[in-house]
Design brief:
It contains 10 helices and 2 strands; from the N terminus they run ααααααααβααβ. By secondary structure, it is mainly alpha-helical. It has 2 domains: 134 residues, Lysozyme; 42 residues, LysM domain (Membrane-bound Lytic Murein Transglycosylase D, Chain A). The protein starts with a helix and ends with a strand.
Length: 230
């Protein structure tokens, strides 16, 4: 009998663990995300996608032990794990604090007046630009989650809404390469005491005869202060 009870416990535990999918996570938290969206005009899709990304859909240690679903750092009073992330009394309070955290930082707060609750693409990129995460692909990953799980359907978009076309980065104009021969510049040298034509020629990869021809010299003798084309 005892063995049957143990096996049943393992069986139902396995089912419970298997049931904790991303879809289940979304079903559990989308209403809170929408509630915050309606108050603050931050896309519910962004709230859900960031939570999924930062908490591994509720499976991370800080989500399980600290109710921290957004990777916010701070002090905690947990005796179960050692962590540099702050704790929350409930998961909902973690969701609420995520929004207040964005509003309390000037580099995130400006997004509330810049983008509407439907423009999840620019919200994700704006949060990344503000330094929310170190990864350069963070915004792309969040946007990918929104599209994969169709989280935008929780943003209550009007039927007539047209998603903004992402602005392509401005490319610098390419330098125009001339097909004509490069313009040669003439280097002038002022003769110093002790200089001679052979030394000057050797230092500049040419010959004394070539320098005499270039400078129309009739003698190889040089005078201090004399200008020589090299």
């Amino acid at each position: 009998m005892k063995r049957i009870v143990i096996l049943s416990f393992i069986f139902f535990t396995a089912l419970s663990t298997k049931a904790q999918s991303t879809e289940d996570y979304i079903a559990q938290h989308f209403q809170k995300a929408q509630e915050l969206m309606r108050i603050h005009q931050l896309p519910a899709s962004i709230i859900l996608a960031v939570a999924i990304h930062e908490s591994a859909a509720g499976k991370s240690k800080i989500a399980k032990y600290l109710n921290n679903h957004f990777g916010v750092k701070g002090k905690n009073s947990s005796s179960e794990i050692r962590s540099s992330y702050r704790d929350y009394p409930t998961v909902d309070s973690s969701y609420s604090h995520f929004v207040s955290f964005l509003q309390s930082r000037s580099y995130f707060n400006i997004l509330f007046g810049k983008y509407d609750q439907y423009d999840f693409t620019n919200w994700a990129r704006g949060i990344q630009r503000g330094g929310y995460a170190h990864s350069r692909t963070w915004a792309s990953q969040v946007i990918g989650l929104i599209k994969k799980y169709e989280l935008f359907k929780y943003d209550e978009r009007p039927a007539s809404y047209i998603e903004p076309v992402p602005v392509a980065p401005i490319e610098q104009p390419k330098a125009i390469v001339s097909k004509s021969k490069p313009i040669k510049t003439t280097k002038m040298y002022t003769v110093k005491k002790g200089d001679n034509l052979n030394q000057l020629a050797e230092r500049n990869g040419t010959t004394a005869a070539a320098l005499m021809k270039k400078n129309k010299l009739t003698s190889s003798a040089l005078q201090p202060g004399q200008k020589i084309k090299l």
